[in-house]
Amino acid sequence: MKRGRLNFEIRRKLFHALFGLFLILILFYSGQNTLIIFLTFFLILGSLLIVLMQQGRKIPIADWFEEKFERENVRFPGYGAFWFVVGTLLLALSLSRIDEIAAAIVVLAAGDSAATIFGIPGRHPLPYNPIKTVEGSIAFFVFSLPGCLFVGWMGIALAALSALAESLATPLDDNLLIPLTAILFFILQ
Description:
This protein is 76% helix and 4% strand. By secondary structure, it is mainly α. A two-stranded antiparallel ribbon has the order 1-2.
């Protein structure tokens, strides 16, 4: 059971990380405004697809994505993707420096992906949140460090703070919690 779940999560999180990399490419090659327009379009289109799918409509490409990448028992189809787009859109709207936006996307895409991939087989639950593991939190931190390429040594503090936030038991989806943490970090520093 755990092996099958891990394989599924690796597929999900690889897509998660690649989409984040794609967003960073848009940011650096086309600019912040283009990223905002792209994410807004994606959010509107995705919301429309979610509504149609909840009404029982069959949409081949959306159904395929749901089958391949959606976890079971989510609140609505496209739940994780929806919050990923909302989170990155909030980053692009709230932060004025593209290097800070890029660093936060690295943390969201690479750090969050690594936390899941290394956390599932992890054997050491966190004392304050037994659903998460020490291995997952360490992986989150380590795989978030490439954010330093964009913001220098501040990337270490961003990675540590985001890893802590991700490890907490909160009602917020990680794809929203991590960007909100990054926004607060950069606004308050």
